[in-house]
Design goal:
The chain has 12 helices and 10 strands.
Length: 295
């Protein structure tokens, strides 16, 4: 890809439209900015992830701009068509159901296509669930990594969490109410139940709630008070010591049995401990299991 220099507010006479990435409220309509409303009124059309949801927002703010659909299932056809219209000089606002577009939604693909065609892409900032949860979590904010939604399959989910096990950055996840307990359980199995987390739900809404504690404490709370609403899970990063041990091959002086016992004492069950040992040593789980049987 060649160097791309964009001067967002300089007229270049190209006759090309602008793609505006417009943030929308994540719950509280008062979080809509004056600039966002003005932009939605001035563009040629608005591309929305869910047109029914967006139409409610537009009606509230008396925006009459044409609304079109752009989502995960039609992006292959809709994306190139939107870029064609941009190249013809029409300006388009892209919105998601809530928050910043292109975060955990197909907006990224449209942005990439626009950039490839030298179409200006201009962000209109506003509410974002992950960052709102982070700054109120009480966990470190100087370094963080956004993960978003974990894979649905247990095997894939565990693999991602294992890859994040020794990351020192605070980790930001999205999760649905019917999966949050399973996700926390998996985090406890891989990272240990004493890792600190913050569960933020119903952000900016009337029943906004922050649950701060260890994974074990949060799971115990959710057993008593079933999850409701969409969640942001903010997880403490690994300690400097743990990260250093991982980088230094801390387990090399251990026997296989001691290595497995280390993970079991950290909160993992036998099966997950075997997986983690296999991952550390670059072996298959069966090799570790068989080697332990032979001793």
């Amino acid at each position: 890809m060649s160097l791309n220099v964009q001067k967002s507010y300089r007229e270049d006479g190209s006759g090309v439209g602008t793609l505006y990435l417009v943030a929308t409220p994540i719950g509280n309509l008062e979080d809509m900015t004056f600039r966002a409303i003005r932009t939605l009124k001035e563009v040629s059309m608005i591309a929305a992830e869910d047109t029914r949801q967006t139409r409610k927002l537009l009606t509230h703010f008396e925006v009459a701009t044409r609304l079109v659909s752009y989502h995960e299932h039609n992006k292959q056809a809709s994306g190139p068509e939107l870029v064609r219209l941009l190249l013809e000089g029409q300006s388009i606002a892209l919105v998601s159901d809530a928050g910043l577009p292109a975060i955990s939604d197909p907006g990224y693909d449209l942005v990439r296509m626009a950039v490839e065609q030298n179409v200006p892409v201009v962000p209109i900032p506003g509410a974002n669930a992950a960052l709102s949860a982070l700054i109120a979590s009480g966990l470190p904010t100087e370094r963080f990594a956004f993960v978003g939604f974990l894979p649905r399959e247990k095997k894939d989910q565990t693999k991602v969490l294992e890859g994040l096990q020794h990351v020192q950055d605070t980790l930001l996840f999205y999760e649905s109410p019917h999966r949050v307990e399973k996700t926390l359980t998996r985090m406890a199995e891989v990272w240990g139940a004493e890792r600190r987390v913050c569960l933020a739900r119903e952000l900016t809404k009337r029943y906004e709630e922050f649950l701060r504690g260890t994974i074990a404490e949060c799971l115990a709370h959710l057993e008593q008070y079933p999850p409701q609403g969409e969640y942001c899970v903010i997880a403490e990063g690994a300690s400097e010591k743990a990260a250093r041990e991982a980088a230094d091959g801390w387990w090399e002086a251990m026997t296989l049995g001691e290595h497995v016992e280390h993970y079991e004492q950290s909160g993992s069950d036998r099966k997950d401990a075997l997986k983690l040992v296999a991952s550390d040593r670059g072996l298959s789980k069966r090799d570790v299991y068989n080697a332990l049987l032979e001793r």
